[in-house]
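Title: [Solved] non-specific serine/threonine protein kinase 3D structure

Original question kept below for reference.
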Amino acid sequence: TILRLSGAMMGICLMKRCCSRLLLISFICSLTNLNEAISPDGEALMSFRSVVSSADGVVGRWRPEDPDPCNWKGVTCDAKTKRVIALSLTHHKLIGPLPPELGKLDQLRLLMLHNNNLYGSIPTALGNCTSLEEIYLQNNFFTGPIPSEMGNLSMLKNLDISNNDLTGAIPVSLGQLEKLTNFNVSNNFLVGKIPSDGLLAQFSRDSFIGNSKLCGKQIDMECPDENSSTGSRSTGVYFFGLPYIGQGGKTGKLLISASATVGGLLLVALMCFWGCFLYKKLGRDESKRLAIEVGGGASIVMFHGDLPYASKDIIKKLEALNEEHIIGCGGFGTVYKLDMDDGNVFALKRIVKLNGGFDRFFERELEILGSIKHRYLVNLRGYCNSPTSKLLLYDYLSGGSLDQALHGTFGYLAPEYMQSGRATEKTDVYSFGVLILEVLSGKLPTDTSYIEKGYNVVGWLNFLISENRPREIVDRSCEGVETESLDALLSIATKCVSSSPDERPTMHRVVQLLESQVMSPCPSDFYDSSSD
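Solution (posted by the thread starter after getting help):
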């Protein structure tokens, strides 16, 4: 019996050992398979997937268990080596930065990510992708300088990084790209002299337009160090079509900024009421006349050159618009839905001209608006100058407008935005503060009750604060709301609209203040109040 028990126990032990070894072997095999499940190129693209999201989930369908990324949407591989040679994901509303791991794709020949919402800096590691022949990153929100490492891309033929928020100088190293035949850095915030040595000297003005602080022979603009006669060039400012003669000091600049702000807001308010009045009064007749007005010698001015349409094609579509295409009454007039033959959709806003003076002023303002790019602002693509009206062409947003969720508010920009023409986080915070004041007061920023006193909503708040009675800005219908909540909202709004950008909180801090003082924290996919 003892021998039998011993044998049985030994058998059990042997079985346990065998099972343990089998489990260990299985675990090792699984790790081996996991490591072999994706190639190094696939790992680099998974880094891209981890930081980028898209509305259609295109990158979310990339599977890390695949042996290579060659069947992933937007990815092309060499048939023999299975190395990634192209990454093409355009018009997918991709949001996020470019990870430096993309620099590991050393066989990449084509990088095509234009017309998305990508942001952050262009990684210097792209300079390691020495097989690159074409780079298309236009119409995104990239910031920071152009990496000088891109001068290492000796095979590069086409480089388009236009319509971003890039800053700094154009690297001299780009002039060493001997195969470069197409080059476009237009509509950024680049500064300094355009390198005149190397191949960059061969490109025309169109490659550099929209960078007001660039200079060089390519754009017929002398650089400051090349013109010692500082008095030979006029430094006057033209304001509302008339020359403004100032001393170049802060007083003149502040006067221009303040006057432009007040004048612009008054103009927008006037056009808001005027446009809606005409829409209600003219009704169907307005839409029927559109075809006649467009056909009367109209011209198309496009701000972004990536639209594949000739002027005649756009005008032909405009002439076919009628009342069935009306999607609303905007701040300046009637808004139409414009469907192009290739499936792209745009929003067309029709503005009735008032007089010749207004025409010249508004056309100049449109050029400023057309150069603005911000990932939270709809793009103004261009306009049509017809004999009796202005036609603005915007990207179409199917989700509607903020006007449908609030009570007719229109965008209100911070004063320093009027000076620089750039939308930043600080101007976003300022606008959010104005929005809070709209909610608290129940009035638009340029309500007639403010205008009659010579203020807007921010000016009126500052006046009430100086009189130690800021609570008077709160609408009477808010009397049932807890006093602590109203005071907290008013305090947050006051901080957001501070005249000094450095004193405004970040939106991260604003959310924390709202959660701690006004409302209970609520789960959201859009922010985490405990993070930056």
